[in-house]
Amino acid sequence: MASSSARDVRLRGVGASPGVAVGNALRLDERGRQQFYYLDVSPTQVRREVRRLHEALDQARAELLEIKTRLTRELGYEHSFILDAHLLMLEDARLLAEIENEIRARRVNAEWAVRAVIDRVAEAYRQVNDAYLRERTSDLEDVAMRLLTILSGRDKFELSELDEPVILVAKDIWPSTVAELDFDRVLGFATNSGGITSHAAIIARALGIPAVVGLHDVTRRARTGTPLIIDGAAGEVILRPSKALAREYARRREQADARLERVIQPTEAAETTDGGRITLRANVEMPAEIDALARFGAEGIGLYRSEFIFLAGLPELPGEEEQYQLYRRLAASAGEAGASIRVFDLGGDKLTLKGFEEEMNPALGLRAIRLSLRVEAIFRTQLRAILRANVHGRLRVVLPLISTISELREAKRIIAEVKQEMAEANVEHNATLPIGVMIEVPAAALMADLFAKEADFLSVGTNDLTQYMLAVDRANENVAHLYQPLHPAILRALSHLVRVAAAARVPLEVCGEMAGDPLQAIALVGLGVRVLSLLPASIPLVKNAVRAVSLERVTALMKEALKLTTASEVEQLLTRELPRQAPQFFAAWAGEH
Amino acid sequence: MQERRINISNRLGLHARASARLVRRATQFTSRIELERADTGQRADGKSILSVLLLAAARGTWLIIRAEGEDEERAADALAELVEQKFGEELSDGVF
Does pTM surpass 0.95? Predict the structure, then answer.
């Protein structure tokens, strides 16, 4: 077994959530495949086996209901519906009759009967020429394993009662796993499958836990207890690190922690050394991230990407009630600072719409507000849910991909109509709902002064604005190098937006990845942006950067930057000057990047 | 016995969530509920999710719902309505 003791084994994966974790592995699939034995039972014991089966079913049902409650609370109903199917499988009279029959007719123990019958059903599913149905065998297996674990009487591994901090190693991290986890004791994730949009990746980023996904066979190479290092930024996992290497990474981890600790106090403000007050809000996709708001000191939610419920694999459009529950929770958690809900930012590529053809160029196609105005029923349902939830907090709506004033007017007309219908029908709602325009199309950026007269606020999405202004798809590796957020054209657009918003006295905020990068966030501040919205886990870092700089000096610096001719000149200026202006933050930070 | 012939019109057909809703509704009635695929004649117990899933009824499939028992008429109507309304979605214009 020389290979299994080899040191410093490096595995490359996809960096899904930045940060360093050093610890011991906990391999999650270990409770999966236990052996179940065939036992002949006497006729008198048959009744006992049937009773054991029913007791196990009751317990399994209770466990699933508990998980469902927890999952709905932590991740939202969209991840919990599959548990309904699991519950129904446990209640399936035909399945129960068949298992009972197996016990009675063949006089076998309950474990064997469960295994045999579920294997037969799974086989029938595999025979059907339907990929979706074949995948449902994993749900059946999940149900079978729950029953068998209860029946076999072994101590179920309690994920919620971890004794020491661990790094989870698993094939994938599923919603039902997450529901059972104690996150304070999870240092990081390493998974076989998944890309940066997988469940595991999203959950890790939401909770600020380092993660590497797409490692293919990490569950084979590491077992419970194997020491390992996760380097989330590099997308690397190092198994059985040498002492020197483990020390080095532990030191990096401590440095990062120490830098964050100074400002992790949510009560401390994002204030520059000369008293400039910056508001840092959170970008949120999943309900699980809501709990992280207070932890990371977010001042409300600057961008809730409401379409995420579709991307999470939900097969159907959620109804008004389901949306209401979600928005209500958002409203309550965001508190006084409020939450901006961006209405569904979807294209035909995400939904199969009856009567709509696949588009040659979806980025420029029927999507976002264009789709909402075309298929009004979806828009109206979402608005009703938002207006009802608004009773419980301060919600705002943001309209994505606006390119003409008439789209804003049309959306406002619909919102007014929905309010009136609700008032006439005596539906409880709060009609005080500020309407914002997402500035991400160059046309909207150039006409921002006109939008500022008719909208309640402007929200700049730098990712899409950069993509559309520079005509670059950054996912296309042939042109990704041309995607430059510090491009002079982008800086000019941002400077223009700050000016017109101030002149019209409407709030302006910037969301997008620029706001989450300390250097670029300070560039935004220097351009005059005062409200940034970013990933919850990035807030402490950016807050630290803000607290290290002087508003006066970064404003002067960006005046210089606006005179430059290329993105790399701007970047050079910033990487040279910011460490001089704020060595306590940027000198250390620049050393690592 | 009551019979209703309906077309599965939601995008994903009788997938897990839709099947779960159908079975939940079916179990609220005392009548025996049977589903049959009009094209293949394959039958399923409407109160068993494993049996309903096995129909693998995609969008466009014609289904015959049969209810037999004391509340057969209400049961058949309720289930047909559920399918027609795409399993509890609000939108009725066939968008999704």
Answer: no
